[in-house]
Amino acid sequence: MDMKETISYLIEAIHSRTPHQVITANPIMVMAALENPAYKEIMVSAELVVPDGTGVVWAAERGGNPVKERVPGYDLLHELMKEGEHYHWRVYLLGSTPEVIRETASRLQMQYPGITIAGFRDGFFGAAEDDEVIATIVEAKPDLLFVARGADTQEPWIAKHKSRLGIPVMMGVGGSFDVISGKTKRAPLAFQKLRLEWFYRLLKEPTRYKRMLALPKFAVKVIRERDRVTKNG
User: Fold this and answer.
1) For residues 27 and 103, is the Cβ–Cβ distance under 8 A?
2) pLDDT tens across 153-178, in order?
3) Which of 174, 205, 203 lies closest to 29, judged by CA?
4) Helix or strand or coil: residue 47?
5) Which PANTHER family match (predicted)?
6) Domain positions in the chain
7) Binning pLDDT at 50, 70 and 90, where does residue 53 land?
8) What is the pTM of this model?
9) β-bridge partners, 91
10) Helices marked H in the chain — which ranges?
């Protein structure tokens, strides 16, 4: 589905109150799934996986099953917020630091006054506090839950607790709160058009290089296993 169709699909999910885990897939996550069966099961069991990364779009095309367009998680978040103004949706924000989450909540509420920020909490909590966090979120009765705890944590956390949370749309948003709060900047439009947002992030955060090593591995795998790229397994 393209962005418009994705939004329509998720609007229906909210109207039907059907819990959906939305995963914004990029090559690093795909490689993690190939190397970790438990992570792969999380991606396979998600109600919706959208092609966030440019590499995923390229791989799908090379595998002979192209997607309509890239659906970046950052843009999807904002499109959902725009729609939320019409329906007066309630939104819960979870993750990042206390300062970032507080500023993110404030800015989103100002930018989209038609929605309600039903609550927010930073991401610094462990498994022992999960019950408390879940109870607080459920009590807020959100239509949307955005979680920013890093791809290696946020997707597993949502998958583990989604039945208890019961929220129509639950989506991991990675570093989106950092951008929304103003802590970091999104890649300039020129980088976005060239599909080099990942390179811009690497320039700004050189410490990400270890994580980025998955990208050439992904590319080699796609080239070598072209016929299996879009097949499960």
Assistant:
1) no
2) 999 999 999 999 999 999 999 889 99
3) 174
4) coil
5) PTHR34136, UDP-N-ACETYL-D-MANNOSAMINURONIC ACID TRANSFERASE
6) 3-223
7) confident
8) 0.85
9) 117, 144
10) 3-16, 27-35, 37-45, 54-62, 73-87, 98-111, 130-140, 151-165, 176-181, 189-193, 197-204, 209-212, 214-224
